[in-house]
Amino acid sequence: MRHVIALDVGGTGMKAALAGPGGELLHQARRATGRERGPEAVVAGILDFAAELRAYGADRFGEPARAAGVAVPGIVDAEQGVAVYAANLGWRDVPLRALLGERLGSVPVALGHDVRTGGLAEGRIGAGRGADRFLFVPLGTGIAGAIGIDGRVEAGAHGFAGEIGHVVVRPGGIACPCGQRGCLERFASASAVSQAWARACGDPAADAADCAKAVESGDARALAVWQDAVDALADGLVAALTLLDPRVLIIGGGLAEAGETLFTPLRDAVRRRVTFQKLPEIVPAALGDTAGCLGAGLMAWDLLGTAATAPGTTATTSTTATPPEVTT
Asked: What pLDDT, on the 0 to 100 scale, is given for residue 308?
């Protein structure tokens, strides 16, 4: 069966898959990045993982993978195939596309930014499917964004498009590691809500999920923390939709797992702020933590001139038995 290799490399773990021509995941596996052993070990682990997947696919489906796609965090030069910088992995200027291509027998390899890759999947086969313009915003440790236009994701002239987390929404506010003060992600990311709720409730172990539960129970302190985050997020999103005019606004990441506890007040807050702008549909992400692998697979198929957008394709996954040598 025709398939490609898809890799989603995170700060602590890697998710991998063999993806079919309709974008479906035929086989999935995970392992740690091994970042505690240094950046060279991380790169070696990626190459080994990809090679094992290639061998497994050749054995399971009777032919090797035709291409590969890999999503990585940090600064990415997708055109040159270089992982420029990732603070959480400790690497700089890694020619990952060339290294993977060589290890995999000279198959074509696509390299992409993790958020933009996940956004590609959400826009093409997930929550934004069928929309000509979308904005994907995952709310996790930080906040990033992916700008979708006609089935592709815009990287920008220098690879920084979509960095909505560093839009200043509270001038003079909390200092951000980027060098500014008052950035959106310092107020509305899952980590920001966790920190604010831990201070408010006096429990240093409390997190955003705990805050959401307290909101649902009517806790006044939690409601105040939550509303502050929602208001900041709405301010940032309205700035983005004023500039980009998306048809669909897709919210993902850990904070979105709160469901309507987040989406009901967020839709209200955005609605109150728009004037002349057209209000987009605001929806939760549909693909969860498989978005990165799905997007990497889509990038790989695109290299072959086969965009995985076939009618009837679903985002559900089919997982085959995982051999011991592929998983950890």
From this structure: 53
